[in-house]
Amino acid sequence: xxxxxxxxxxxxxxxxxxxxxxxxxxxxxxxxxxxxxxxxxxxxxxxxxxxxxxxxxxxxxxxxxxxxxxxxxxxxxxxxxxxxxx
Length: 86
Fold this sequence. Notes:
The structure is a single chain. The protein is α+β, with helices and mostly antiparallel strands. It has a single domain (2-85), classed as ACT-like. Chain A, domain 2 (Alpha-Beta Plaits). The protein is built from two helices and four strands, in the order E-H-E-E-H-E. The protein has helices at 18-27, 56-67, and strands at 2-12, 32-40, 45-54, 72-85. It has a four-stranded antiparallel β-sheet. The chain is elongated, with a radius of gyration of 13 Å. The chain starts with a strand and ends with a strand.
């Protein structure tokens, strides 16, 4: 299956969920090229952006697991640019 390059944006609206989000993200570390986080301490929210490279199935599995966590939203945007095949 072909790999794609894309981004995943994660919005945590209750920072108590951050530990669970970090556990999930660590599970998918094989497809994560870069991670950037921005906490909004005064609003109890955080935004994390990931640059990913993997199969669409693997990237969607990441966003799906994140989406099942309460107070967490995630979206993936994948390019049409295909990287090397697995």
